[in-house]
């Protein structure tokens, strides 16, 4: 079945391939950037970010020479910010160790920050024409249906089975187009729900379709319940400016700026939570005033409902002059600080209300 799958898929891809700004380019850096952005983010979301990024950082050198804050600001809105930090670190490593040229081998690529097995295979095959597999979620789903894999797809056995299939099916000399064709088939035809089997170029070869199990493939393991956290944030004013704190470099939204606050503990009121958090973070008591909105966001492994309040320091206030992780910012300056989605929503409200008051 190996030759039939590759032949039919590549013929279909020649006519039906998605027109994407990183396809058909000769620059490995462009392929690398696109593959990192596509980790955990949909193609239609990535496109405008990719185009903006390539205008801002058109070369490995321009990215390597940028500050981390500029990199995070350019990435803002796509989430999973560790990807941006890793890309930045890798660019500096490429400049230092490879003279500014991305290494061509899968083994060398996977040693760079932010490049895993899938990304290394995708870059090696697409940018350098090497015979390497690239197995992401779309590809796993396609193969699980084509070969009617009845093992949970993310179990060790399921992962190894699909990797084995991918190696066996890879057509020599055509890996780049073949891997992209599989990705497109999964994104356009072999959909997670209601696959479009009637127009699939591989329908006659699909074992799951023959066995009537396509809706049951891939087999998924039970998902744990997603926790929901209630958190608070303080919009602390002083002389027409608000206080921002920079998150620790390690962890969620590392290096981004936020309105300080934290998670509600059992038995606390929202205002008591906020007072405690600000004392713990800034060693200064605050007066909590009017509510400044309720904001919700879902991350990969948890959900958040954030309650923001307008606040002020009541006596001693932190000395932030020259501080690296705390700063006073005027509303018009907030756009210069990279933030996560919720904090950016709060910043937009601040700017909007200040503009309306003028």
TrEMBL record:
<dbReference type="GO" id="GO:0035485">
    <property type="term" value="F:adenine/guanine mispair binding"/>
</dbReference>
<dbReference type="GO" id="GO:0034039">
    <property type="term" value="F:8-oxo-7,8-dihydroguanine DNA N-glycosylase activity"/>
</dbReference>
<keyword id="KW-0408">Iron</keyword>
<dbReference type="Pfam" id="PF00633">
    <property type="entry name" value="HHH"/>
</dbReference>
<dbReference type="InterPro" id="IPR003651">
    <property type="entry name" value="Endonuclease3_FeS-loop_motif"/>
</dbReference>
<dbReference type="Pfam" id="PF00730">
    <property type="entry name" value="HhH-GPD"/>
</dbReference>
<dbReference type="InterPro" id="IPR003265">
    <property type="entry name" value="HhH-GPD_domain"/>
</dbReference>
<dbReference type="GO" id="GO:0000701">
    <property type="term" value="F:purine-specific mismatch base pair DNA N-glycosylase activity"/>
</dbReference>
<keyword id="KW-0004">4Fe-4S</keyword>
<dbReference type="InterPro" id="IPR015797">
    <property type="entry name" value="NUDIX_hydrolase-like_dom_sf"/>
</dbReference>
<keyword id="KW-0234">DNA repair</keyword>
<comment type="function">
    <text>Adenine glycosylase active on G-A mispairs. MutY also corrects error-prone DNA synthesis past GO lesions which are due to the oxidatively damaged form of guanine: 7,8-dihydro-8-oxoguanine (8-oxo-dGTP).</text>
</comment>
<keyword id="KW-0378">Hydrolase</keyword>
<dbReference type="InterPro" id="IPR005760">
    <property type="entry name" value="A/G_AdeGlyc_MutY"/>
</dbReference>
<dbReference type="InterPro" id="IPR011257">
    <property type="entry name" value="DNA_glycosylase"/>
</dbReference>
<dbReference type="GO" id="GO:0051539">
    <property type="term" value="F:4 iron, 4 sulfur cluster binding"/>
</dbReference>
<dbReference type="InterPro" id="IPR023170">
    <property type="entry name" value="HhH_base_excis_C"/>
</dbReference>
<keyword id="KW-0411">Iron-sulfur</keyword>
<dbReference type="GO" id="GO:0032357">
    <property type="term" value="F:oxidized purine DNA binding"/>
</dbReference>
<protein>
    <recommendedName>
        <fullName>Adenine DNA glycosylase</fullName>
        <ecNumber>3.2.2.31</ecNumber>
    </recommendedName>
</protein>
<dbReference type="GO" id="GO:0006298">
    <property type="term" value="P:mismatch repair"/>
</dbReference>
<keyword id="KW-0326">Glycosidase</keyword>
<dbReference type="GO" id="GO:0006284">
    <property type="term" value="P:base-excision repair"/>
</dbReference>
<dbReference type="InterPro" id="IPR004036">
    <property type="entry name" value="Endonuclease-III-like_CS2"/>
</dbReference>
<keyword id="KW-0227">DNA damage</keyword>
<dbReference type="GO" id="GO:0046872">
    <property type="term" value="F:metal ion binding"/>
</dbReference>
<dbReference type="InterPro" id="IPR000086">
    <property type="entry name" value="NUDIX_hydrolase_dom"/>
</dbReference>
<dbReference type="InterPro" id="IPR044298">
    <property type="entry name" value="MIG/MutY"/>
</dbReference>
<dbReference type="Pfam" id="PF14815">
    <property type="entry name" value="NUDIX_4"/>
</dbReference>
<feature type="domain" description="Nudix hydrolase">
    <location>
        <begin position="227"/>
        <end position="352"/>
    </location>
</feature>
<dbReference type="InterPro" id="IPR000445">
    <property type="entry name" value="HhH_motif"/>
</dbReference>
<keyword id="KW-0479">Metal-binding</keyword>
<comment type="similarity">
    <text>Belongs to the Nth/MutY family.</text>
</comment>
<dbReference type="InterPro" id="IPR029119">
    <property type="entry name" value="MutY_C"/>
</dbReference>
């Amino acid at each position: 079945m190996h030759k039939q799958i590759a032949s039919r898929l590549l013929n279909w891809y020649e006519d039906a391939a998605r027109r994407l700004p990183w396809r058909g380019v000769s620059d490995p850096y462009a392929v690398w950037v696109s593959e990192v952005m596509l980790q955990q983010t949909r193609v239609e979301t990535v496109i405008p970010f990719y185009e903006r990024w390539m205008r801002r950082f058109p070369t490995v050198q321009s990215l390597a020479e940028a500050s981390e804050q500029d990199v995070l600001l350019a990435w803002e809105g796509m989430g999973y910010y560790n990807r941006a930090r890793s890309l930045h670190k890798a660019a500096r490593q490429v400049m230092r160790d490879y003279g500014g040229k991305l290494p061509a081998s899968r083994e060398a690529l996977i040693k760079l920050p932010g490049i895993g097995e899938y990304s290394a295979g995708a870059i090696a095959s697409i940018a350098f024409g090497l015979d390497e597999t690239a197995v992401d979620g779309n590809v796993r789903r396609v193969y699980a249906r084509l070969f009617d894999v009845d093992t949970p797809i993310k179990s060790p056995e399921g992962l190894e089975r699909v990797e084995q299939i991918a190696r066996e099916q890879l057509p020599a000399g055509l890996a780049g187009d073949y891997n992209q064709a599989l990705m497109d088939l999964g994104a356009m035809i072999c959909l997670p729900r209601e696959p479009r089997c009637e127009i699939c170029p591989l329908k006659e070869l699909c074992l799951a379709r023959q066995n009537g199990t396509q809706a049951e493939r891939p087999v998924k393991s039970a998902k744990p319940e997603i926790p929901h956290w209630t958190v608070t944030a303080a919009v602390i004013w002083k002389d027409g400016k608000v206080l921002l704190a920079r998150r620790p470099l390690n962890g969620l939204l590392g290096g981004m700026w936020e309105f300080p606050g934290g998670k509600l503990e059992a038995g606390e009121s929202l205002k008591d939570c906020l007072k405690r958090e600000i004392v713990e973070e800034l060693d200064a008591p605050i007066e909590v005033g009017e509510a400044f909105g309720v904001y919700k966001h879902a991350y990969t492994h948890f959900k958040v409902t954030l309650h923001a309040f307008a606040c002020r320091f009541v006596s001693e206030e932190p000395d932030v002059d020259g501080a690296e992780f705390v700063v006073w910012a005027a509303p018009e300056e907030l756009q210069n600080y990279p933030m996560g989605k919720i904090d950016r929503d709060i910043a937009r409200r601040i700017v909007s209300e200040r503009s309306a008051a003028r």
